[in-house]
Amino acid sequence: MLLSLQDATVRFGGRAVLDGVGLDVAEHEIVCVLGPSGSGKSTLLRAVAGLQPLDSGRVLLDGRDQGAVPAHKRGVGLMFQDHQLFPQRDVGANVAFGLRMHGVGKGRQDERVRELLDLVGLPGAGRRAVAALSGGEQQRVALARALAPRPRLLMLDEPLGQLDRSLRERLVVELRELFGRLGTTVLAVTHDQGEAFALADRVVVMRDGRIAQSGTPLEVWQRPADEFVARFLGFENVVRGTVTGEAADTAWGKVPVPPGAAQGARSVLVRPAGVRLVAADEGLRCTVAARTFKGTHVAVQLHPTEGDGPRLEAACALREAPEVGDAVGVEFDAAETVVLG
Amino acid sequence: MAVPVAFFAVFFAYPVAAIVKRGLETDGTWQLGRITDVLTQPDIRHVLWFTTWQALVSTALTLLVALPGAYVFARFDFPGKQVLRAVVTVPFVLPTVVVGTAFLALVGRGGLLDEWWGVRLDTTVWAILLAHVFFNYAVVVRTVGGLWAQLDPRQEEAARMLGASRLRAWRTVTLPALGPAVAAAALMVFLFTFTSFGVVQILGGPTFSTLEVEIYRQTSEIFDLSTAAVLTLIQFAAVGAVLALHAWTVRRRETALRLVDASVTARRPRGAGEWGLLAGVVGSVAVLLFLPLAVLVQRSLDAPDFGYYRALTRGDGGVFLVAPIEAVGNSLEYALAATGIAVVVGGLAATALTRRDAGRFVRGFDALLMLPLGVSAVTVGFGFLISLDEPPLDLRQSWILVPLAQALVGVPFVVRTMLPVLRAVDHRLREAAAVLGASPWRAWREVDLPMVRRALLIAAGFAFAVSLGEFGATVFIARPDNPTLPVAVARLLGRAGDLNYGQAMALSTILMVVCAVALLVLERLRTDRTGEF
Questions:
Q1: How far apart are CA A338 and CA B10, in angstroms?
Q2: B269, B336, B381, B465: which could join B93 in a potential S-S bond, CB 3.0 to 4.6 Å?
Q3: What percent of chain A has pLDDT over 90?
Q4: Which of A72, A80, A86 sits opposite B437 (nearest CB)?
Q5: Strand partners, A24
Q6: A242 beta partners
Q7: Mean pLDDT of B441-448
Q8: Residue B452 in contact with residue B422, Cβ under 8 Å?
Q9: How confident is the model at residue A256 (pLDDT cuts 50, 70, 90)?
């Protein structure tokens, strides 16, 4: 393993910000840590970088304990959330900074800076002042600066956080291609699930300083480990129930579940696509509370008029979407239902 | 951290301890009862009360007059700005004795106001207060203006877009950001006026006396060392309390500021209001700062054929062993050495104080560093004389003694000027440098130094100026054949006769010119460097 965290714990005034975290990152792997703010993601990166000492546990790089190694000797790169470009240096000097620190010769520095600026799509920007750059350009310079000394592990803290949506979506694809081409090992943190799923080979979801789930984007998306992960991924249709055989008894009535599901008192998730609208006198009776156009479909918010179950979200084709105030019936599709832990 | 601590232990704590020991100890037993004896004397209580209230009023007046000046210097570009900036700083580096004399020449008996309107202020407290404003104007302009020039004006613009009036935007955005700098400046002014010596000695007459004057009187006129020691302790305690309060307020308000290049924040004044403000500042500088200096120069020229100046080159063996003019070279050498020491010691201390993992001990040192300002300079000089004259530290014959004493007074300036800027550097920039492979020392050099270079130059300028003008300590330890300029001036003033008086004025004028030239060079240096960023 290139990076191993073993039982890493960091406490701020008695509160554990990292609570016994174990995490491995293999060479050439892109791992994305996903979690809401305050879940300890940034602290995790800072601990690996050597900027935040651990209260207990270990950080291993290439199998060697980094406890006594100061930040500047760890050979990892970190791209800060708000870039932290050196304001008094121009773009080229920012990118060359790490090279200078590692004693690379002037000629080689210039060459590498040119190479990296080409790589991040800012050819010839070396003499520009960093204050004159747009947010996206600053982000590219920060990336070039972090990549320049060829760190064995590149860490990104909310790499696309402050950029506008379309730029973010384009850059995330570019980044994944770039890292794939360079064979860079990446540990990134973000609160944006779309960003994490698009970038990562493996997603790690954090909650309150602990790892809630780890897996490929597909695994995490299809089988959230618990209600927290499901809700964090944006799934709202979660309800408590008792699973017996292939059905769960919930506040929404009987919900069919896939064969082999865990039995007993559980949380049950129904994806919006699994909420089928039927005639008003069938299934669970609901009224339409709101509808939101989502481009490919319409998200319909349903308010159950029987039982005391929470609101439901259904995904409908545009033509079939009911109007606000309509009375509808709801049935559930076992294939889109997940019994959570 | 070790260097500043050792420096202060040997050259400050040890001499002060020596003088206190000499004052309070008799035959190996401590006579602490002397403290209460001294404190119950009504005239000492009167001195304490006067010292405090005149310092408070002087500080308030100085802020009132100088804050608009700081704004004008930070935000406006106008012809002659650099010259005016130097003019503003000159009074600060003048020996207190000369400041006192210049004001005497302006508002005293036979002075300019007396000749014109028959107004005399030398018997009132106003002369002291005005001289204090004159003296400390530069402290506020330099300390506050230095930071103000680097504050991003767009922050205020953001507040105005959110509906704040100009004044409100200033009050809610700029003022809090300036807070620590204003507090630092106010603290300095308070300390200077609290321990004011030369000015009060000359303008106060028998009516007004500060603690410092009283200490001097007890030491050199009444030779009552134990009373002087007790007064020193009282001054120590008072200053310590103020410094503790200051350290507390600074820690509460410490924030990372958005600093920008100072050269982009200044612009031409626009509209009648801003031109009016500029005119007001220039006017107040002219009346308060320039006029006394002009009178000083005029008096120095008050003999035919530059008679007073030519007299300076003659070593007639009267007052000095050498020609008074040689004091210029001595002063410059001492001041350069003292500046070097102060910048190294102060820079190291300021860096140690900004470290995020700085412990309580280190932060306590922050306040401790300011103590040399608060303890009487007379005490420091006298302490040097009685403590550093025997092995292992026999420095009495060494030329380094004078720069050491002057550096002691200069270090707090360096620390005060650099701390606000160093603290405002975003620590994540240092982390970014560390992750890119920079060791802590390298990170400081690559990240902090370029950002604080301006503050460092200002600090060096201050230390240089303070060394040039330092009088209270130097007067005790400068050797008779190597006097500094202020010491030479004081000796000349102490003698009767028009020739000596005129020579003192002439020498003061030279000191003033030396300072102005040095400061102009510094200003030039600064503008060249800012282009690098």
A1: 75
A2: B465
A3: 47
A4: A72
A5: A4
A6: A249, A265
A7: 85
A8: yes
A9: very high
Determine, for residues A71 and B434 on separate chains, whether the beta-carbon distance falls below 8 Å.
yes
CB contact under 8 A, A51 and B431: yes
Contact across the interface for B439 and A72, Cβ inside 8 Å: yes
The enclosing domain of B202 has a CATH number of 1.10.3720.10
Residue B523's pLDDT band, with cuts at 50, 70 and 90, is: low
Over B61-109, what HEC string results?
A: HHHHHHHHHHHHHHHECCCCHHHHHHHHHHHHHCCHHHHHHHHHHHHCC
Name residue A94's amino acid: N
Candidates 3.40.50.300, 2.40.110.10, 3.40.50.720, 2.40.50.140; CATH matching A235-340: 2.40.50.140
What number of residues does chain B have?
533
The SS3 call for residue A10 is strand
Q: How confident is the model at residue A65 (pLDDT cuts 50, 70, 90)?
A: very high
Burial track B164-186 (b if 16+ CB lie within 10 A, e otherwise): beeeebbeebbeebbbbbbbbbb
Lowest mean pLDDT among A31-40, A173-182, B23-32, B212-221: B23-32
In a mutagenesis test of the B interface, which of A43, A51, A90 is the best target, namely the one with the most B β-carbons within 10 Å? Answer: A51
pLDDT of residue B367: 64
Evaluate the omega torsion of the peptide bond into residue B392 and state whether it is cis, within 30 degrees of 0. Answer: yes
Higher pLDDT, B4 or B133: B133
CA distances from B527 to A8, A25, A331, B84, B435 (A): 50, 50, 76, 15, 32
Cβ atoms of B371 and B239 within 8 Å: the answer is yes
Q: What is the pLDDT of residue B45?
A: 83
- Is the pLDDT reported for residue B345 higher than 90? no
B442 touches A at CB < 8 Å: yes
Q: Which of A73, A84, A149 sits opposite B432 (nearest CB)?
A: A84
User: Does B150 have pLDDT greater than 80?
Assistant: no
Domain ranges of chain A: 3-227, 235-340
B260, B425, B427, B435: best to mutate for the A interface, most A CBs within 10 A = B435
pLDDT given at position B255: 55
Q: Bigger pLDDT: B505 or B263? A: B505
- The average confidence (pLDDT) of chain B is 75
Structurally, chain B folds into a number of domains equal to 1
- Quick one: pLDDT at residue A224? 92
Q: Is the pLDDT confidence value at B94 over 80?
A: no
Write the residue in B426, B440, B533 that is nearest to A88 by C-beta. Answer: B533
CA distance B102 to B453: 35
Question: Would B406 be classed as within a structural domain?
Answer: yes
Predicted local confidence at residue B529, as pLDDT = 38
Contact flag A49-B435 (C-beta cutoff 8 Å):
yes
Q: What is the ipTM of this complex?
A: 0.78
pLDDT above 80: residue B499: no
Residue B527's pLDDT band, with cuts at 50, 70 and 90, is very low
What kind of architecture, by CATH, is found in domain A3-227?
3-Layer(aba) Sandwich (3.40)
- Give the residue-averaged pLDDT of B10-21: 77
CA-closest candidate to residue B491, choices B480, A211, A194, B235:
B480
* CA atoms of A161 and A195, how far apart (whole Å): 10
Average pLDDT over residues A37-55: 90
* N-terminal to C-terminal alpha carbon distance within chain B: 29
Contact of B209 with B203, CB cutoff 8 Å: no
Range of the domain at B305: 1-23+45-527
Going by DSSP bridges, is the β-strand pair A30-34/A202-207 parallel, antiparallel, or unpaired? Answer: parallel
- Does B431 reach chain A within 8 Å, measured CB to CB? yes
Tokens at B412, concatenated: 């707090």
Determine which of A84, A113, A155 to mutate to test the interface with B (most B C-beta atoms within 10 Å): A84
Q: Does B436 touch chain A (CB under 8 A)?
A: yes
Q: Which residues have a Cβ under 8 Å from the Cβ of B460 and sit 6 or more positions away?
A: B339, B342, B343, B414, B522
